[in-house]
Amino acid sequence: MSPEELFKNLNARIVRLDSDAEIKPFESDDNDLDNFLLNDAKDYQNSLLSVTYTIQSDSDTIAYYCLSNDRLSQYMEEKSVWNKINRLISNKKRRKSYPAVKIGRLAVSKKFTDKGIGKMIIETIKEFYKNSYLQYAGCRFIIVDAYRNALPFYEKNKFKYLTDNDKNDSTRIMYLDLKAY
Ligand SMILES: CC(C)(COP(=O)(O)OP(=O)(O)OC[C@H]1O[C@@H](n2cnc3c(N)ncnc32)[C@H](O)[C@@H]1OP(=O)(O)O)[C@@H](O)C(=O)NCCC(=O)NCCS
Known about the structure:
- The protein has helices spanning 3-10, 31-46, 79-86, 117-130, 151-156, and strands at residues 13-16, 51-56, 61-73, 97-108, 141-147, 160-161, 171-177.
- By secondary structure, the protein is α+β, with helices and mostly antiparallel strands.
- It is globular and about 50 Å long.
- The relative contact order is 0.16.
- Bound molecules: coenzyme A (COA).
C-alpha cells in the first residue's frame, strides 16, 4: 500500500501542534523522542524555539516532526565540502553560512515504520520550502543532526554529509539543497 493510500485509510492528517491540541498516543523506537512530543513540544513551541507537526489518525499519533530556523555554516576543516556547497550558489551571493530549516526531531510510530511515512514527511518539508512563493523568509537548505540509526534513511532521501569530522559521533550533520529539486 502506498503511504497516500495508508493516509486515506487511516483518515490521517498533518496537524500543527497548538497549545490546546490533544496529543494522541505515540510510541516510536526512541524513548527520548516520545517524551519530547508528550512532555516538551508545546513548551518549545510557546517559547518560539520550534514548531511541531503531528500526523494524526482518529486514534493515534502516526508520526511527528519539529522544525526550526537555522543555518548551514562552513566547517573550516572541510574547505573542499564548503567549496562544493558554494558552487551551488552564484558567485556574488556566496557567504560563510546560508539560511536553512532544521529538522530538530522526526519520529514515526513503531506500528507504521517502513511504510514510506518518513519519506513522505521529507517530501512535504521539501515541497513547502522549495517553493519560493511560500517562503516568508529565505531558506536554501534543509539540515538535520541525524541519529546514527537514521543515517541510511536520510541518505536514501538524498541528504549529504557536511563533514567527516563527526563520522564516529552519535549524530551527524546532513544537508539537502532545496534548489537541487
Ligand atoms: C528513521 C525513521 C524516521 C524512518 O521512517 P520510516 O517511515 O520508517 O521510513 P520510510 O519507510 O519512509 O523509509 C524510506 C526509505 O529509507 C529506508 N530506511 C528507513 N529507515 C532505515 C534504516 N534505519 N536503515 C536503513 N534504511 C532505512 C527505507 O527502507 C526506505 O527505502 P526505499 O525508499 O528504498 O524503500 C523511523 O524509523 C523512526 O522514527 N525511527 C526512530 C526515531 C529516529 O531515529 N528518528 C530519526 C531522528 S534524526
